[in-house]
Amino acid sequence: MDDEPDNLVGFKASLRLNYKVFTAVNVPQAIDCLDSHPDIRVIFCDQRMPGKTGVDFFADIRISHPLPVRILLTAYTNINAIIDAINKGNVFRYVQKPWVESDLVSSIEEADKFYMANSMLSVKNDELQKAYTALNKFAHSVSHDIRGPLTGILGAINLAREMDDVEEMKEMMFLMEKSVKKLDAYVLSMHDYYSLQRGELKITEIDFNKIMNELKTMYSINSKINHVGFSINVKQEETFRNDEAPLMLIFNNLLSNAFKYQDKKSKNKSVEVDIEVRKSIATIYVKDTGIGILGSHVGEIFNLFYRSNSVEVGSGLGLYNVKSALSKLNGQIEVDSVLHEGTIFKVTIPSV
Amino acid sequence: MTTEYSFIIIDDLELDRFVTRKFLERTYESVIIDSFHDAQHVLNMIHENSVANNPVPAIILLDLQMPLMDGFEFVEEFEKLPAEIKKSYKIIILTVLSSKSDPIDIYRIQTYVSVNSIIQKPLTREKLLSLLVQLRSEI
Question: What was the ipTM of the complex prediction?
Answer without folding.
Answer: 0.85
